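note to self: the first set is below, dont mix up w the second
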Amino acid sequence: MDPLENFTFRVKWDNQYIAGVSRVGALRRVTEDVQYRQGGGDTPVVRDAPGRTRYEPITLERGITSDRAFEQWANLVLDLQAGQGAANYRKDVILDVFNEAGQKVLSYMIRRCWVSDYQALPVLDANANVIAVEQITLENEGWERDAAVVWPPN
């Protein structure tokens, strides 16, 4: 039996779990391939080496709720652009993953996130059979797994 079959997870920032997050985009990093020539003469060799690493943006989605956490964080970037000095527009985000027994089996700290894209409402269509979803896209400066969280838990 797969303990992560249902992908039970929770998202936290400002020391509070955020209500209703139903989808988290992939945690993905990409390291550039830098090629260089080595050797001289008639047969130089092309070698590869790792270059800069970038962390892909992460999208969080949830059905619209009365909780305004997504909107409030997205508004901090607007405040910054308006010159109101919102120094706290960057946040560390914690992604906790649980098994079917409700035990935390994975945890990731996503560093220095800020909201680059905010969708308050989807396209509204009275004939569609969908729920209204709000979403944010988080730029980030990296993530790391919490080694203190062991799988399977004791």
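second set (the one i keep forgetting abt)
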Amino acid sequence: MDFELPEELKMLQEQLRRFVDKEIIPIERDAYEGPDMKPEVRARLSEMTKKMGLWHYGTPVEYGGQGLGMLARVIVWEQMGRTIALPTRRTQIFGPEPSFTLFMLNERQKQEYLLPVIRGEKKNCFAQTEPDAGGDPGSMRTTAVRDGDDYVINGYKRFITAAKWADFAQVIAVTDRKKGVHGGISAFLVDMNTPGVKIVRAQPTMMDDEPYEVAFDNVRVPAWKMIGAEGEGFKVGQTWITAGRIRHGARALGVMERCLEMGASYAKQRVTFGRPLADRQAIQWMLVDSYVALQGLRLMVYQAAWKWDRGDDVRYDAYMVKMRGDRLSFECADKCIQIHGGVGLTRELPIEKFWRDQRSMMITEGPEEILKTVLARRVFELYS
């Protein structure tokens, strides 16, 4: 067993760490304009990533990208997680980021949707969550009914990130209510300017995000725009969300690393009752607990990414790293606030945003209660 990163990934890790420390952290409180990055900041950082050879880092080589595997992506996500300067759920400075599901398209679909995304000509969003179907896709009410050469979609989606700017959506809908998630859910490419598609409202959140509610009223979609075969939509959605859950774990590593850096540094500087906080056992234990949690989580996340790159089934690994990463990083940010006292509550420091963001992560892309329920079934399969 070799727990060392390959030399090229060590170099990537160090390169990105220097980039974040030198170029991004110093501007992180001035990088935003509303819920998004300032265009000039994004443009400047994007030029730097191009020079670093990381433009389109996750896009396969055959499509003009760098073709980095999942472990390399984890290194990128981890280092970017150390700063609040970048949007929490998308980095935006490494070029367009096609979702894993877009590479599942057939050739005709790739020409119309994937390649324009890679070229930066189109943007997309993923529309699965509904008011009554968040962590339970089996309760989905949005339907897609076959009508000649089309499917007619009716329904309502909620918390759809980037819907306002998207040219098309990957929409998950029910095609056979009786089959449910076992062959009754399908995925479609839906142009956002199709008659019947309406962005109803923005939903500002405590994380500074602004997802949207989207209505579909008798939206006609040509049958050739179905992703995969009818009934494969749940699998399409799970491919997207499994990668997303590994990303949760990777981001959590970056958050924890930054909070440890800030917490340990402040504890040495801050003096109370004639002694630095670093001398207080209560403070020491907070930092040690966070450090131990970080080391354990890193092994889990790296292993999940390594297994992905081997082609293994990593669903359960993704459940675990998402569940543990989100909670541990939230707890680490919480301890970091406590160490800083009143100043930790201010927006002069990034800790409060880490705290808000990581609290939200414990709900999005699978709340831990549902993940634990699924993992419980796995435990009984393995041990009874």
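remember for set 2: The chain has nine helices and twelve strands.
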